Amino acid sequence: MLETKRISVSSKRQITIPQKFFEALNIGSEVKCYVSNNKIIIEPINDSDDDYFTEYILRDLMKEGYQGEELIQKYKEMKSKVRPAVDRMMEEAKMAARNLRNQKGTGDDEVKEIFGDLEEE
Q: Can you give the pTM of this predicted structure?
């Protein structure tokens, strides 16, 4: 049976994740939080997502000739830009979905507009 627990919400809109859930999911210092079907979903952030970006960032920087301390500094710069870029993409996708609900059609044009450059790769 699915275990549930009632959690209080503070006046600052904060909750405490029960320790049993926290440990079972191996939650680190951050989680993803989103709304789906009128429910708040909280997911642990998978470190493999970071590994994926790390590898590509480092490969690109090495191709550009960076090494040693300069590589480390450039990596830190690039890494700090990944999360905001992903957040912007997610927000654009949400806005497109909202717009689609208000329009007729398949939404293919909007998807191509947002993600068209990725389809070419």
A: 0.40
- Strands (DSSP E) contained in the chain are 31-36, 39-44
Residue 33 phi/psi, 5° resolution?
Answer: -135, 130
The whole-angstrom separation of Cα 102 and Cα 99 is: 5
Altogether, the residues listed in the chain come to a count of 121
Structure tokens that stand for 66 in this block: 């960076």
**Contact (Cβ atoms closer than 8 angstroms) between residue 27 and residue 18:** no
Which H or E run contains 103? Answer: none
- Cα 56 to Cα 35, 67, 78, 90, 117, distances in angstroms: 30, 15, 11, 20, 18
pLDDT tens profile 24-49: 888 887 888 888 888 888 888 866 55
CA distance 42 to 14: 13
Rounded Cα–Cα distance for residues 86 and 20 (Å): 30
Q: Residue 61's CB: how many other CB atoms inside 10 A?
A: 19
